[in-house]
Amino acid sequence: MTRFLLIALIWMIVAKPAFAAVDLATGSLIVQGILAGLFTYMMMRKKWRERLDAYRTKKAAKRK
After folding, report:
1. Which is nearest to 32 in space by CA: 14, 20, 45?
2. Given this model, what pLDDT does residue 39 score?
3. Cα separation, 37 vs 35, whole angstroms
4. pTM > 0.85: yes or no
5. Is the CB of residue 18 less than 8 Å from the CB of residue 28?
6. 45 contact partners, CB below 8 Å, separation of at least 6
7. Residue 46's Cα: distance from chain center in Å?
8. Rounded (10°) angle between helices 29-63 and 2-26
């Protein structure tokens, strides 16, 4: 969880100028939300997959 918070902090620092440019280009908070969501999804996808695999193997072990 702390790693996620660290990523979020870095994201805020790095993304604020980028978002300022995007905001000037689009004037849209929705686009910012989509970009933030995409970024978070890309970062978390690997972790989710690892958890899913662990859960599946645990379930398979129980079944035997």
Report:
1. 20
2. 81
3. 5
4. no
5. no
6. none
7. 10
8. 150
